[in-house]
Amino acid sequence: MADPHSTLITGISELVTNDGERGGYAALTDAALVISGDGVAWTGPAARAPAADAVVDAGGRAVLPGFADSHAHLIFAGERSAEFAARMAGRPYRAGGILVTVEATRAAPDAVLRANLRRLAAEMLGQGTTTFECKSGYGLTVPDEARGLALAAEITPEVTYLGAHVVPPEFAADPAGYLDLVRGPMLAACAPHARWIDVFCEDGAFGGAEAAAVLAAGTAAGLGARVHANQLAPGPGVQVAAQAGAASADHCTFLTDADVDALACTPVVATLLPGAEFGCRQPFPDARRLLDAGATVALATDCNPGSSFTSSMPFCIALAVREMRMTTEEAVWAATAGGARALRRDDIGHLGVGARADLILLEAPSHAYLAYRPGVPLIAAVWQAGRLAAGSIP
Ligand code: NIG
Ligand code: FE
Question: What's the domain range around 116?
Answer without folding.
Answer: 68-342
